[in-house]
Amino acid sequence: MRGLMPSERTQLSRRAEEYGLRDAVQRAVKISVVIALLFLIHGFTSLGFIQKYNPEVTLWQNVWPRFVLCTLPSIALTFWMYRSKVSDRTKIIFWITSFSVLMNFTSWIYIWPLALAGNPEIITYVHAANIFLFTTVHLVVGPPWKMMPVFTGILSLLFVAPLLAVTYLSGDSVVFSLVANESIISMITTLFLYKMMDALRFRVVQLEFEREIEASKFLGPVLSEAIYGGDRHSLETARCKGFILSLDLRNSTQVQQNSREEWLKFRHVYFSLVSQLVKKHGGYVQKTMGDGHLVNFGVMEYDKTLPEEGEDQRLLLVSQRVFAFTDELFTEFTRMTPPGSSLERLSLSGGVDKGWVERSVQGNEAFALELDVNGDPVNCASRLQEYAKILIERGKIRGSAILISPFASDYLESLEGFRRIPTRELIIRNYPGIKWILVREFEDSSSRA
Predict the structure, then answer these.
(1) What average pLDDT does this structure show over 159-185?
(2) Please, what is the average pLDDT of the chain?
(3) Three-state SS across the chain?
């Protein structure tokens, strides 16, 4: 696990265990069907050697008890494993317990009674099948290695121990020694092979996990979870109300031309800050454009975490996250552009709008697909962000500021720090119907100069 952080190692171990249990349950469901058929087939194929010790046994007498006591319970076990809502760990424990009990049932149908009646060698006829099933169960159904002591312990206690007890009580020390030695050798060999298989499975999970971590750096947490975590909900088309935030840095071209190295270092820190705060406040970076960002809130998780109180409560909670994000981002930005540095000309502008948007996958599968959010709020937020430049040129605002549409202000609990600016004289491009906006300015280098 070289290169993984401690938290990532813990997450990897937990995921490997979850995957191992889930896959073990799936394999148990499949092998239960096979075992159900084997129990039934054994009723037909075992008649010959059973008649060798008890000629009065008929085919029907040999088949129906196995069908009733073994095959039907195995089928019922299959359906329970498939439909039950209990944890995968509980399913595996219940499965190996049921399997061990069923092995007892099939053994007590003639084999063990005949052995105790003075025919101990009959156990040698079927012990190869016992070892085959014991090995198969471990290698096919075996859960993660941490759980193997419980898995093997249940099988040993409920089937292997009764098998050895019956063999010992049958009175033939040679048969007992043969069965005991073969059981021990097969157990050790099987566990050794399973340990190798489990290590290989863990390595596969590790490679997938490392690939997911690397891909998530580019895809983002939402797409990464949708693709690698199996949560396809975020890729489904949905129409809902959400908040859109457009951000852009002012005067970045001049700063870049005058102090390229310092600009590149600042841009890296700034982009890292935006990503960190967006994740912290539950947003999603939809696009980056040069030094600008388009961020949405309340869209990607729609239909997934709807509060019982309804849509108004949802939008109120989203609104709180939006303005907590802008407050923290703009406050941190003012600390990143100290007076006297080449960065003092920079300012941050943002526009926020709320309304109906559509979340959907766009593009061509043969070339590239993109999870996109479209709607009028996307355009409006961009126009508001552009409008900040006009307000700066007209002296209406100085430096960094966030502009909020009337629609996005519905859930503002307090207007402290905001100014209401009419837009009748300076019309917002494409949005003449917006008669006023709320503006909050943040003191930075340009405004302190």
Answers:
(1) 93
(2) 87
(3) CCCCCHHHHHHHHHHHHHHHHHHHHHHHHHHHHHHHHHHHHHHHHCHHHHHHHCCCCCHHHHHHHHHHHHHHHHHHHHHHHHHCCCCHHHHHHHHHHHHHHHHHHHHHCCHHHHHHCCCCCHHHHHHHHHHHHHHHHHHHHCCCHHHHHHHHHHHHHHHHHHHHHHHHHCCCHHHHHHHHHHHHHHHHHHHHHHHHHHHHHHHHHHHHHHHHHHHHHHHHHHHHHHHHCCCHHHHCCEEEEEEEEEEEEECHHHHHHHCHHHHHHHHHHHHHHHHHHHHHCCEEEEEEECCEEEEEECCCCCCCCCCCCCHHHHHHHHHHHHHHHHHHHHHHHHHHCCCCCCCCCCEEEEEEEEEEEEEEEEEECCCEEEEEEECHHHHHHHHHHHHHHHHHHCCCCCCEEEEECCHHHCCCCCCCCCEEEECCCCCECCECCCCEEEEEEECCHHHHC
